[in-house]
Amino acid sequence: MSEVFAACRPRLLGIAYGMLGEMGEAEDVVQDAWLHWSDADTAAVRNAEAYLVTITTRLALDRLRSARSRRETYVGPWLPEPLVADEADPETLAIEASELSLALLGTLERLNPVERAVLILRDVFDLEYAEIADVLDRTPTNCRQLARRAREHAGDATRRRPVTPEQEQRLVAAFMTATATGDLEAIQGVLAADAILYSDGGGEVTAARRPIYGAAKIARFFVGVQRKQTFPPDIAYTPARINGDPGVRMDTPAGLLGVLALELSDEAIVGVRIVLNPHKLAHLKARA
User: Fold this and answer.
1) Which of 111, 132, 154 is the last residue of a domain?
2) Is the overall model pTM greater than 0.85, yes or no?
């Protein structure tokens, strides 16, 4: 019984994380699903994975409904808890493989909980509409309608177009050098003219309280961070993959300060997402 659950756990964790955007909450959901599984008559379960996906999704739906009210009063832009790829943690890599980028998760916040569940199960985890219908206790036709409506509400999940590994490496390196030195023109040069920056401090640490639009304003933001010495002088910047996207870890001798994810398209950076809220980094610190 435990072996069956362990085999499904990365998928269940990915679904719960995709639904909630919070790793701690997702782990709690999966733990609750394990308790349901432990109490179930597993001999009567014909498809263990389908059963566990159903339990996990329904538990996540309940939590998401209560989480929405908390997010309405959140200080500044709300970003999901980030995942930093760790080759020693197969579960995290499995979630990364499902392409749950910060950009996608942010877009899903526009949806109601049921629309989000349909889109996660269909577009991210490739469930058939008949399977989704069983999970949500609806008809396949209704689930198709919900998926179409959800895509209309969400709009484009990301603004990216494919980039080569060489382009990615060049853009990330140029961005890190420009921001570390406070070079206004160089920062602006690697950003798309209509780039957007989101900075999530949650009222716990200094961060931009609103999204910043446009390359010029984003460049001035980073130069201001340098001039005001917002971050400690001994900060170390390390390239990393954040939810599958290129990004940067920001570490100090005292520990992880934040993570920054970059959304790339063609020859420029179109999105910058910085997570500084220490509560959203706790799962990363615990894993370090």
Assistant:
1) 154
2) yes
